[in-house]
């Protein structure tokens, strides 16, 4: 049990890295299956379109899918177009929303960039697309005319022909792999730089930030449990009242205004002893203080802190 607890603690401490790693592995495995089973270059004038579609279209689908499965996307978007929110619009809130959108975009880019990088290392898609490119044709066949261009279209389907055409120049396969490694290097450099900058500008210390992350995780877990219990009790009361043809018993549940107050994002800072909007809500007379109304709306959580969804005890 002690060993299992250590594994659980390790996974919790590195959940972001592990999550990205799992997404990367699944994407790489999917790309391998596509390139091995589904993909077959036509080796004609459609090479460019066919190869580019397999290289870029799945990456675009993964990018959109990553947005769709991230709960933060819907938390950021829900209610933004309502008339009430337009009346409450603040420039600072717009800036915060854009900041959070950048964070979501960075997370959503993991899967598509992995697809493109792995596909470039495999070289099949690039080799097919590049063989139908007029720019590549000019590079390889500027002195050999139309016959060379026709042969270039057959390169993805003929290894001997590929070796013959590429004998004096860098092969399409090698070009693809170089592009893949350069892309991986750039991604890693940007990821490290972004992490260093975000940590450098953190308003709290390392251990304080660590506590915030732990609190956010536990708060979210407890909220799911409490929300199911609360919803079950409310559903039981309403259905019993309906079938028994009786007036429903009194039942306390958060108001729409309360839900609105706790659903906005929160910025961890060193000036307030709070760790989420719900924590602030229950600590400021259920969000009725002037300070809460002034500061509590449309704030975004720091990029390196997983935002909490609720504080159970406040509901």
UniProtKB/TrEMBL annotation:
GO molecular function: monoatomic cation channel activity
Membrane-topology descriptor: Multi-pass membrane protein
Protein name: CAHM6 protein
PANTHER family: CALCIUM HOMEOSTASIS MODULATOR PROTEIN (PTHR32261), CALCIUM HOMEOSTASIS MODULATOR PROTEIN 6 (PTHR32261:SF4)
Lineage of producing organism: Eukaryota, Metazoa, Chordata, Craniata, Vertebrata
UniProt keyword annotations, A-Z: Ion channel, Ion transport, Membrane, Transmembrane, Transmembrane helix, Transport
Entries under Pfam families matching the protein: Ca_hom_mod
GO biological process, one term: ATP export
Organism: Sylvia atricapilla (blackcap)
UniProt subcellular location: Membrane
GO CC terms: plasma membrane
Family: Belongs to the CALHM family.
Residues that span the membrane, as ranges: 7-29, 49-69, 101-126, 178-201
């Amino acid at each position: 049990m002690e060993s299992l607890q250590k594994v659980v603690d390790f996974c919790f401490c590195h959940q972001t890295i592990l999550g990205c790693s799992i997404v990367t592995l699944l994407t790489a495995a999917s790309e391998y299956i596509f390139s091995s089973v589904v993909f077959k270059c036509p080796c004609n004038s459609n090479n460019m379109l066919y190869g580019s579609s397999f290289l870029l279209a799945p990456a675009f689908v993964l990018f959109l899918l990553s947005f769709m499965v991230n709960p933060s996307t819907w938390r950021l978007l829900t209610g933004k177009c309502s008339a009430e929110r337009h009346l409450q619009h603040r420039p600072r809130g717009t800036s915060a929303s854009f900041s959070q959108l950048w964070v979501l975009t960075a997370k959503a880019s993991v899967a598509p960039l992995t697809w493109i990088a792995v596909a470039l290392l495999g070289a099949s898609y690039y080799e097919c697309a590049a063989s139908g490119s007029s720019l590549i044709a000019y590079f390889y066949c500027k002195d050999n005319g139309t016959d060379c261009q026709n042969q270039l279209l057959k390169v993805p389907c003929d290894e001997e022909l590929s070796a013959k055409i590429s004998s004096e120049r860098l092969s399409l396969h090698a070009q693809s792999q170089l592009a893949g490694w350069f892309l991986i290097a750039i991604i890693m450099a940007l990821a490290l730089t972004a992490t260093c900058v975000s940590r450098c500008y953190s308003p709290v210390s390392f251990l304080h930030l660590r506590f915030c992350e732990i609190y956010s995780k536990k708060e979210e877990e407890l909220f799911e449990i409490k929300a199911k219990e609360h919803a079950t009790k409310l559903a039981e009361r309403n259905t019993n009242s309906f079938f028994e043809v009786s007036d429903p018993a009194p039942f306390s549940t958060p108001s729409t205004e309360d839900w609105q107050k706790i659903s906005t994002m929160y910025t961890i800072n060193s000036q307030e002893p709070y760790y989420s909007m719900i924590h602030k809500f229950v600590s400021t007379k259920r969000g009725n203080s002037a300070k809460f109304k002034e500061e509590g709306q449309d704030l975004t959580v720091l990029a390196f802190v997983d935002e909490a969804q609720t504080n159970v005890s406040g509901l």
